[in-house]
User: What shape does this take?
Amino acid sequence: LAPRRGWVFPGLNQRLSAAPALMSAVPPARPYAAAAKTAKKGSQRTKQEETKKKQATRRRPLMSKPVDDVYLTWYYERPSYDLEEAVGMLKKFQELDFTHPQQYVYINVFLDMALQKKKKVDPFASTVLLPYRFTDETNKVLVFTENEQEAEIARENGAAVVGGVELIKWILEDEIQVDSYVAVPAIMPKLIPLRNKLRRKYPSTKRNSLGHDIPKMLQLFREGLEYMVEDECVIKTRIARV
Assistant: This one.
């Protein structure tokens, strides 16, 4: 209501006249930076809300057993059975599903790989001789020996290849390929060139592939079941037929 604007805002005319000069010196505003920050905060909030919703809707298994044959599995704990009962169920399922009776039975073994000093056992591979063989297949085994008497024993017990230093060149050139390698202690200093080639198949006492009892080693690696630790603590292998 003042007749002149200078009475209300003294010095307004000088400030308005100086505004264009100041506008040229001031850098242009960036309205998009603030918008981007708000969007980022909003995205973090939405993520946190989604995680809270997921945690809230997580179902916990109940302790009681279902009363019907049809039920939601995540409402109940997974049942566990004794070995004999589980094998009987497998045989029953085989008859109901009309599957082949010679199909394999697999097992998952979970190992405790932790040690007392906060270290873990490194994953390993080994061979075990099962009391009941479930397959007629046998592995090819090569025996390293330069003793003619030991070589004859190896051939009688089913060795695929028997020889000494002359086999090194053929193995390096992939002319000889077998499943396992066993050796007697006397020839080990001459097999050093094969260490990088054979790696874990290199004969050693730790894997029971180095020793004087050639028939025992041949039986283990011809008829044995080889297994290895997967995913740091799990052994997944087949152990029988239905």
Remarks:
- The mean pLDDT is 82.
- Residues 15 and 207 are 92 Å apart (CA to CA).
- Strands lie at 104-110, 125-128, 141-144, 161-163, 180-183, 225-230, 234-241.
- The first helix runs from residue 5 to 8.
